[in-house]
Amino acid sequence: MNRLQGIHIPNLDEKMGMNAEKYVNSLTKPPGSLGRLEEVVIELAKMTGEAFPEISPPGVIVFAADHGITSEGVSAFPQEVTCQMVRNFLNGGAAINVFSRSINARLSIVDIGVSSDIEDENLVKKKVRYGTANFLNEDAMSPDEAVKAIEIGFELGQKMINDGAKCLILGEMGIGNTTTSSAVAAAISGKNIDSLVGIGTGIEKNKIPYKQQVIMNALKRRKPAADDPIDVLSKVGGLEIAGMAGAMLAAASNRTPILIDGFICATAALVAKLISNQVTDYMILGHRSVEPGHTHVMELLGKKPLLDLEMRLGEGTGAAVAFPILQSAVLMLKEMATFETAQISNKE
């Protein structure tokens, strides 16, 4: 798969993880009393290979793209909202802007496949094509376009890390992308569509069976190969999903933790896992989305979420909201006293 074929993802540093665990147990608290914060910081030590992991500043990359499947009436919003929301991101008014500012994140907005042109000097223009095709009637994109979108994601993930990001958060914007994600997740997992499809951006519940039927019909016609990420992406995928998968691979190859957002981002993580199984070693799941498919995807990734706030916005918002938990974990390690330094008697 071009230059991604030779991607090298290093093994976790298990020795550093054991050192971190030993140090965590020497802190002035009963062992295990800080629960998952202790688990998280040990995982971060393994990922980064650092005794005291650095995760700040985080880097947020939001990939935007349109989906031809919206012409089937599967979304509550019209396709032009993708372009309008990209402008909102660029103007600083979206939820991900607010949450990125709150964690001092570096934010990058990428046009990887919006169906119209947007002129703004702050927009990263990497358009592969003007939206995907309607995958009910034809393949969403060509295999070459799928590979190109992954490579763009890898390039931009690498750039964000080169510019100083110590943790990567991926977000997306694309009307219709819960339908696309459900199709991708079903193709890879073999799960029944009925268990994967939710309301997305807010379609009426009585329209969910129609959305499910559209996806089932598309999968029967396209027949994507479950073990081939390029085949799945080209037949029923999305350009922003491919871009996020590529950025995840870049992060893992640099020992940079990836904080995974909701259903669409987790579906991209599934695609990245198909490309390189070790990529999941560098993932932490930020939150549980209310989209039903997210639970199944989390199981396939072997991850449990840090938060459950009943969110379903996307954009990377759930991951950004979860980031302070990672901050708390690393500060616990760096700033808490040990029993020895505090001269406190430890448990006999």
UniProtKB/TrEMBL annotation:
A GO molecular-function descriptor: nicotinate-nucleotide-dimethylbenzimidazole phosphoribosyltransferase activity
Keyword Transferase (UniProt): yes
Enzyme Commission numbers on file: 2.4.2.21
Positions of transmembrane segments: none
Enzyme category, top tier: transferase
Domain of life: Bacteria
Pathway, per record: Nucleoside biosynthesis; alpha-ribazole biosynthesis; alpha-ribazole from 5,6-dimethylbenzimidazole: step 1/2
Entry keyword set: Cobalamin biosynthesis, Glycosyltransferase, Transferase
Signal peptide positions on this chain: none
Catalytic activity: 5,6-dimethylbenzimidazole + nicotinate beta-D-ribonucleotide = alpha-ribazole 5'-phosphate + nicotinate + H(+)
GO biological process, one term: cobalamin biosynthetic process
Active-site residue numbers: 315 (proton acceptor)
Annotated function: Catalyzes the synthesis of alpha-ribazole-5'-phosphate from nicotinate mononucleotide (NAMN) and 5,6-dimethylbenzimidazole (DMB).
NCBIfam families: cobT_DBIPRT (TIGR03160), PRK00105.1 (NF000996)
Family: Belongs to the CobT family.
Protein name: Nicotinate-nucleotide--dimethylbenzimidazole phosphoribosyltransferase
Gene that specifies this protein: cobT
